[in-house]
Write a structure and sequence with these properties.
Elements (H helix, E strand, L loop, with lengths): L1 H21 L6 H12 L18 H14 L3 H23 L3 H13 L1 H5 L7 H15 L6 H17 L4 H18 L5 H15 L1 H13 L6 H7 L5 H13 L9 H14 L4 H20 L10 H12 L7 H17 L28 H9 L1 H5 L8 H10 L5 E5 L3 H7 L3 E5 L32 H7 L7 H15 L5 H11 L8 H10 L1
Parallel strand pairs: 1-2
Helix pairs in contact: 1-4, 1-5, 2-3, 2-21, 4-5, 4-7, 5-16, 5-17, 7-8, 7-16, 8-9, 8-10, 8-11, 9-15, 13-15, 14-15, 14-16, 15-16, 20-21, 23-24
Length: 530
């Protein structure tokens, strides 16, 4: 038994080494980092300091970064350290608290080490490590045989944290949480059903308080319940069938160049194992994976190859950890061999990847349909290994451009498409119009011109006539009067006095769609021109 434990510990250490060797920070992470920097320096939870716009999708991750940034006032090593620690903790808990045996743990750790998606986003500056840890804590609780309301409270609390970290992960948690509620109601004492339902709902409500409180704050502070990125990506006007086709391609995008064979195949295997499993818990975990896959297809996937498959992969690994057939060596050994072969078939596998990853031509990593190996593209510019060797990281032309803008005090207004590195290093005195609308409250609510090229996750908008002038001069320069009025109402929400009664009226009207008609003329004009 001790020997088996040592083998698992060695694999965990190996996993940690692989994560450190592959650690990097993507451009998108610096969008959140700019908010963190502004927040800690007294400008509020803002990206452009003149506007209250939620440009980040992960409030819990943002607050965690902010806590440590308050003490370090340095983001590169701080975010990497947090990510690495959370990832190692998630892996360790999966191996020792979820796996039914050392054999299951051995297979699970091998999969995680060879999954490019999991390793790439274990330390990228994004929220994935925190999502992974919360999922593991949730599943540890789920597999506890206890069926009391205390368990429901814990499960709903972890679900709340997961959704607070990223809203769409609700799909991964919800089926298992529903099963736990059903199990509790079925096995609880002989109370009247109405009484049981009321008490159960009360416990669930208490567990969800972190998310409920955030939503209340979000509507009060930002004026909207969802992050600006959601409006930017889901309000494009692109036909659903086109997005679905893009989403299907996303699921298989790592196959053509064998970029990451392990991740999608293990996700599929986890679902199949659960279908034939005797464990209801496994089946409901698989249901969550399936719902999340459908969601990925619906939204068109993303531009970061397999990033959205990292959490489903971890859920599949949990199913593998709980599957008893891997107790048998005649099942375990061929499965383990298959995973290793699949992993090393990829020329980009994380075990062999390291500081030399920078030597590959960046263009190799940009694939059809706008899906790319983001770490392959950015690693040479933001490698933790290079930073540990004394090189200045991140090192990129966008960083240099940001520093130049910072030196142009007191105020700059620019229009740009890649705003992460640039925005962070430009500092609070530079206001940026984000052409792909992730950080721009007006553009996020405007459609993508039909004939304009779009890349998934990068839905570039046309800048309306007079928009830059209106921002710079603080007075309307719009040609379209409907758009002018819409922007005025929006500005009251994002820039007006927080406690102004009229602002609350505008928040209600905007969120209930009472101003959509103001955009109709502009939308028709854009459609006619394209």
């Amino acid at each position: 038994m001790r020997k088996n434990k040592i083998i698992v510990i060695v694999l965990i250490v190996l996993s940690a080494i692989i994560i450190v060797r592959n650690a990097w920070l993507c451009d998108d992470a610096y969008i959140t980092f700019r908010v963190v920097d502004n927040f800690i320096n007294g400008y509020g939870l803002r990206w452009n300091v003149a506007e209250r716009v939620q440009v980040y999708t992960h409030p819990l991750w943002m607050f965690l970064l902010s806590f440590f940034y308050f003490f370090t006032r340095e983001i590169f090593f701080t975010s990497n350290a947090i990510s690495i620690i959370l990832s190692i903790l998630a892996i360790t808990l999966a191996a020792f608290k979820i796996s039914k045996s050392h054999k299951n743990a051995l297979l699970a750790l091998t999969i995680l080490c060879l999954s490019k998606a999991f390793i790439d986003y274990s330390a990228s500056g994004l929220e994935n490590p925190l999502t992974h840890l919360i999922l593991i804590l949730f599943f540890i609780t789920l597999f506890n045989p206890d069926t009391s309301r205390r368990k429901l409270l814990a499960l709903s609390f972890f679900t709340s944290l997961g959704v607070l970290n990223r809203m769409d992960t609700l799909l991964l948690f919800a089926p298992s949480l529903c099963y736990a509620v059903f199990e509790h109601l079925r096995t609880s004492s002989d109370e009247k059903l109405k009484s049981k339902l009321i008490k159960t709902f009360g416990f669930l409500l208490i567990g969800f308080l972190p998310f409920i409180l955030w939503e209340a704050f979000s509507v009060f502070y930002y004026g909207f319940p969802f992050p600006n990125t959601a409006y930017a990506k889901l309000n494009t006007g692109i036909p659903a069938i086109k997005l679905a086709k893009q989403g299907l391609y996303y699921l298989i995008s790592s196959f053509p160049k064998k970029t990451d064979l392990v991740t999608p195949l293990v996700v599929l295997s986890g679902i199949m194992l659960a279908v034939f499993s005797k464990s209801n818990r496994n089946k409901f975990i698989a249901a969550g994976i399936f719902l999340y896959i459908l969601y990925i297809i619906k939204i068109g996937g993303g531009f970061m190859m397999n990033r959205f498959l990292a959490a489903p992969l971890l859920c599949s690994v949990v199913i593998i950890c709980r599957t008893e057939i891997f107790y048998k060596y005649k099942i375990l050994i061929p499965t383990l061999a298959s995973v290793i072969i699949l992993g090393f078939l990829s020329p980009f596998n994380p075990v062999l990847s390291g500081i030399n990853y920078e030597n590959t031509n960046e263009n190799v990593f940009v694939f059809n349909k706008g899906i790319s190996d983001e770490r392959g593209f950015y690693y040479k510019h933001s490698s933790l290994l290079k930073a540990l060797k004394g090189e200045k990281m991140p090192s990129h032309q966008w960083v240099d451009q940001g520093i130049e803008l910072r030196e142009k005090k007191p105020f700059s207004l620019i229009y740009y498409t890649s705003v992460g590195y640039l925005g962070f290093f430009a500092g609070p005195h530079t206001s940026i119009i984000d052409a792909v609308a992730l950080c721009d409250p007006l553009l996020a609510r405007l459609p993508v011109p039909k004939k304009k090229y779009w890349r998934i996750g990068h839905f570039e908008r046309i800048i309306p006539y007079g928009y830059t002038g209106s921002m710079h001069l603080a007075q309307s320069q719009f040609k379209d009067k409907g758009l002018e009025k819409y922007y005025y109402k929006l500005s009251q929400i994002i820039s007006g006095d927080l406690f102004d009664k009229n602002r609350f009226v505008e928040i209600w009207k905007m969120n209930t769609g009472q101003y959509k008609h103001l955009l109709e003329n502009y939308k028709r004009d854009i459609s006619d021109k394209n």
